[in-house]
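Input.
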Amino acid sequence: MKTITSRKNPVAMHLKKLGNSRAYREERGEFLCDGIKLLEEAVSSGIEIVSVITSNEIPLALPSNTAIYNADRELIDSLSPLKNSQDTLFSCKTPPNYMDGHSEFKGTHILLDGMQDPGNVGAIIRTADAFNIDSVILTEGCADPFNPKTIRASMGAIFRQRINNVTMAELLALKESGTRFVGAAQGEDCLDIRSVRPDDAIIAIGSEGQGLSSDVLSLCDEKITIPIAPQCESLNAATAAAIIMWERSRAG
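Output.
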């Protein structure tokens, strides 16, 4: 195990940039995670782990090609973009976009439209994994699914759940191929979620502030709503997504 003592070490600088820059993550095809629990999840999933840096012992076997480094806790804290950072950081290869090579979609998928909060995106990925959703699809305005905050909120589901970043043109192509779109919205023309089985479809959920964009709404074959008390304006986006996924599961 090699020891890193300087923040200017190339490995340390690389890991710090992975944590701070989406553009750099996308350029390198790699992302940063923290904590032994997530490392255990990564190993179990079979995802390619590139490097690990720790101030402690690693209580599990890592793939033989993993680069392992030791550093003091102060240096590790300086590399992590997260509050309450843990004593282990590691990087993984970004899995390929699931949509690549798929001209049509079967099954049930959650589409996040302009959802910018990484905590909400991570929570939805976690819930989608729990309810066997085929993939989580993100429009261009969404938070990066491989942001360290998203990954921490996903509680390891990021290593199991299929993820798709899409353009509007790709969504239009799916619509033209016959894919059914269902939008979560509010209004008199919306169906009560309890009366609909949103299965074999792409279920679109918008941001808390803006809801679904007009472009995504125009794709929807039908719209669904979650009945709430009249004095409440809306639900947290991750909560709404969880209710929709639960109702779909319960209806089956």
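The chain has two domains: 2-93, 109-251.
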